[in-house]
Amino acid sequence: MRLTNQLCAQHIGWHFKKHWLIQGKRVPRETGAAAELLRLSAQVRTPNDILAPKKERLMLDFIGTSPRAISENNANLKSDSTACHYYNDNSLLIGGLPQAQVLTNTIEVKTFPPKIEEAVANQKLPNGIDRNIRNAILSAHVLDAEQVKLPKIKLIERPAFNLPRNYGISHERINRLLVNKILHEIEKLAGRSLAVRRKLFDNAAFKASLNKDSDKIGFAINANKLVCSNRAIEGVKLKFNGNLPDLYPMKCTISIPKKPIVQNDFYPFRTDATCSHPHTVFSVFDTNLVNTHGSEVTTSQFQARTLLKGFVVAVARAKHLYGASSEGDLAKPIVVQSVQTDGRTFHFGVFQLNTLDISSKNSLKNYWFHRESYELFSKCGYEAGRAYLDNYNSDIFRILNALYCSS
Amino acid sequence: MLSLTRLLNSALTLQPPQRAVTAALALQQMRTKTKVVEKPQPGAGQQFRRIVHFPEEYTVAPLKITHLAGRDPVSGRMVAKGIGGGIKQQYRWVKWVRDGPGEGAPQEELVVEILHDGCRTAKVALVAVGDELKYILATENMKAGDVLKTSRVIPRIPVRPNEGDAYPLGALPVGTRIHCLEKNPGQQCHLIHAAGTFGTILRKFDDKVVVQLPSKREFAFDRICMATVGRLSNPEHNKEHVGSAQRMREMGNRPRSGLWKRKEGKHGRKIRRLPPMTTIAPPPSPKQEAIQLTLDL
User: Which GO terms describe its cellular component (chain A) (predicted)?
Assistant: First the structure.
């Protein structure tokens, strides 16, 4: 029969199917039966529990499988007693240098220790040294043969642009070459008598844990280059007074994430090793490192990182010397020099660990001697096929040389 | 009964059918059959632009998103037209609840940085308190270093609030500009979020506070509903020109047409008197879950 209006008026077609789509869904009316049954202490179960019971999966313990890692998003992290604030190479202090000072109970002194200031001012360098350093910078930044894909560049004002990928020398290699070449020049200047008293190490790991006002803080850092000496650096005898900066309403542990980790102390040398005294820590700043919230690293945060590198090495050394359970003021301060660079900017500092007690109540403070950061050059690259270096700053080599020679 | 005997007969007489043949038959039958797919209705607070991959715990790290291009993430069917493509932005998880002490001095928070968030029009502020970092919506004049106050106390005399402070509606003086308003006590502050918008406290009666929302409509809220003081940042947003068709595509909108209806008034001119003040109803009780009966028709 033809499908006409007359027919459709009589024909119910898919009516039942359509009707069932709506009527097949029912919301059970609340009768209070479940509550009554529970009151009579009867078990109430949904039909699905009986009709389609959940099959428990049997977990088999195979030999050789690695133990399951504890999830970092552990909900009980706050109540977990083993959880500690964990600072590593990728951590950044949001409060910058003031936060680092409060965290490590340290007073900032905006000059180097007198001995180093004197050495920087009075050292006599041969005439050709600046040319050698310029060559070292050029060979690290421009002339090295490594060609790898560099990180993607995104224009903020034109986010849809896909720029062609650049090839060049990787950031890690630039820094490694630069530090090695400059240290080589310094060693040549210092001569054999001093060079035998220093030893260089690559990628030395340091770990330490401390308690600060009811918070546990674990540190795990990596020194890209470590200079060790056969004698410890003498501490500064002068007394410095000052107050710690006020971070209110922030706590000093802000932006250091809490992790369920039991941090042990670790120092990479035995006590009886001849050159086991930490002298200078060189750390490379990874330019890809950004804050957790995605913002660029500020100068203050950069400087805080230098301080903490020196602090962690000093604490690891103190715990290595006096035992892991040692606390309180040190009989003899431990001095570690810290240098941080991103290939262009250099920041130097000297950390003096007077006490392992970093709680806010302790009146004895640690010292951090530093100057503002230095730029090694303003521009470096190829122009018309020739390597060029603009505004080379010779102060950096002078300071590095003074730091290397200090004892 | 008839069918039962037919079934028995067939089972006795016929050979067991081959598997491949039945599978092909089933597929053929499915092809001719219309599959009923339930699609959600557009609107009702749901947007089909993106899914944000929220982790279990709150974080200030920018979150990854997945573009939906107007599709329902459950059924995969198109729900909203005109959405698709665009720059992949990162989402910053704003903590809507401004929780302060119920008595005593207000909690103080420090603004660390004002940031641009690609997924919303207003700017967001990174705020530090204790050892916690969180995002809130930035107000017009907020800058890094500001100290904000948060409290749930309602004093007898209204407080003198600064921009960015969060108080209950009852604690704020009449005429205050507010944003991030709780609809009902305990609900997340989800009213007045767009760039440059603000609500105004008009008057108070009994335990209600009347607020004029950006739509110019007046609503009476409970006096313990939390609100943040000030006008939201980026007030020039509504005067900004898109500039080009390509910019529109970068924003994730597809070419559109046919929306302008002069006579019906849809997206057109329509001037009516505002409805009278409405008292906000308490939140609806949670819906009972429906049972799907499985009769195969």
Answer: mitochondrion; ribonucleoprotein complex; ribosome
